[in-house]
Amino acid sequence: MTTNPRTLYDKIWDDHVVETAEDGTSLLYIDRHLIHEVTSPQAFEGLRTAGRPVHQPKKTLAVVDHNVPTTDRSKPNEDPESAAQIAALAENTREFGIEYYDEFDKRQGIVHVVGPEQGFTLPGMTIVCGDSHTSTHGAFGALAHGIGTSEVEHVLATQTLIQKKAKNMRITVDGKLPDGVTAKDIILAIIGEIGTAGGTGYVMEYAGEAIRSLSMEGRMTVCNMSIEGGARAGLIAPDEKTFDYILNRPMAPKGEVLESAMAYWKTLFSDEGAHFDREVRLDAASLPPIVSWGSSPEDVTSVTGVVPNPDEIENEGKRTSKWRALEYMGLKPGTKITDIMLDKVFIGSCTNGRIEDLRAAAAVVKDKKIAGNIKLAMVVPGSGLVKDQAEAEGLDKIFIEAGFEWREPGCSMCLAMNPDKLSPGERCASTSNRNFEGRQGFKGRTHLVSPAMAAAAAVAGHFVDIRDWK
Ligand SMILES: CC(C)[C@H](C(=O)O)[C@@H](O)C(=O)O
Ligand code: SF4
């Protein structure tokens, strides 16, 4: 029997469709469900009201991340709303029989760091979470995307989700990345190229030599920000690096099960001749380190560039919105990116809070000190296990000696839902993924960069081209 060539997305989709209605609406089987404290309370409330159990509790993993303070956790949580959400997650997971990593558990961390780390995230799976950055898990060749709270309830109750199939897009990044240019720069450049709506209605598969050359951490960074490019999900075909990463993870299959899983995983790639509705190509060799200047992840430029002049934009609506962004950011057209002075530096998040990110940042700040104008520079490991690993390698000492704060794992200053926030007007070099108005705190100003660029900015007090770093 011959089958039409299929994309990786087509294959995973086909393997999970339970039923498709005439209008194309499908019921999709969900293999893995991650939950956190922010988007799960009403879902459990709904189950309780309807008197429903969780259909397959072992397929859900819960972790607390958004609201937890990143300082001493033995003290009571001072924010009543956070405390209530955290208490609710503990109670709900206990009542419904779901495994939960609380704020004192070594395995606790940002949900998108924890899933892969535990081997909960595996190739070919459908993975959902009430969180937009679930796209991160696509780095393993899993179809992974964010869902809303009512869908969280649906998945808890049925282990299925109602979906319409998205279109296929392939983004090929050819060539070799220059030194100092990272996965973060690739994805920022892609979003700069296609815009934040560029991926709307698509699942994006990343391919090409530069993507294949990335570590699993780097691939996660790329897939993480698929959502900022508007896509439903991001995907990278699994390969030997993927399999090596998974091996021996606590929840990953072992022995014979692993062997048969592996045989399946090896079929997970887009067939030669498979149809993509849109193709985008980028040359890695021409990419510089990227810095965002505005209040949208598409507002990016090279570190060697200047703040652009919105008057050069033809479309009036866009022109007005970019002027507004510059006003919010307190920047003037023509300002050199390397002249932008900073107040704070944040290294962490589900985009760049993994061990390699911390290694890259530590290599930059080793034997150096943060600049006098930097009021706070912090490193927040993506999970307790990342923190342990970093400490075993002595990275914490490097950061602390340079003047950084070394914190407990969580979302931290990626978003203003916990005590780590920018004050109005403060400017931050951040390794996170969103630079919307108020994202890191009311009137806070965010510049998105790679971990090495953030670390160098902390030392210099302003942005510097990491390619010139000594
Ligand atoms: C709080 C949560 C629902 C949210 C998301 O969906 O992404 C957060 O993680 C974010 O990054 O903005
Ligand atoms: S680290 Fe940031 S982007 Fe990631 S889940 Fe937490 S808040 Fe969302």
Number of helices: 16
Indicate the overall shape: globular
Helicity level, as a percent range? 25-40%
User: Kindly state the mean pLDDT as a whole number?
Assistant: 97
The profile of the biggest β sheet is: 5 strands, parallel
Spatial strand order of the main sheet:
5-4-3-6-7
User: What is the radius of gyration computed over CA atoms, rounded to a whole number of angstroms?
Assistant: 22 Å
Structure classification = alpha/beta
CATH topology of the largest domain: Aconitase, domain 3
Overall number of strands? 19
Count of folded domains:
3
Annotated CATH homologous superfamily of the largest domain: Aconitase, domain 3
> Uncertain runs with pLDDT below 50, 5 residues or more?
none
Percentage of residues in DSSP E strands: 15-25%
Bound compounds: 3-isopropylmalic acid, iron/sulfur cluster
* CA(first)-CA(last) distance: 59 Å
The level 1 CATH classification of the largest domain is: Alpha Beta
CATH architecture grouping of the largest domain: 2-Layer Sandwich
Topology:
Layout: H1 8-16, E1 17-20, E2 25-29, E3 32-35, H2 41-50, E4 60-63, H3 80-96, E5 99-101, H4 111-118, E6 126-129, E7 143-146, H5 149-158, E8 160-164, E9 167-174, H6 183-194, E10 202-207, H7 209-212, H8 216-224, E11 233-235, H9 240-246, H10 255-265, E12 278-283, E13 290-292, E14 300-302, H11 316-329, E15 344-347, H12 349-352, H13 355-365, E16 376-379, H14 384-392, H15 395-402, E17 405-406, E18 427-430, E19 445-448, H16 451-460
Parallel strand pairs: 3-4, 3-6, 4-5, 6-7, 9-10, 9-12, 10-11, 15-16, 15-18, 16-17, 18-19
Antiparallel strand pairs: 1-2, 2-8, 13-14
Helix pairs in contact: 2-5, 6-8, 13-15, 13-16
The chain binds 3-isopropylmalic acid (IPM) and iron/sulfur cluster.
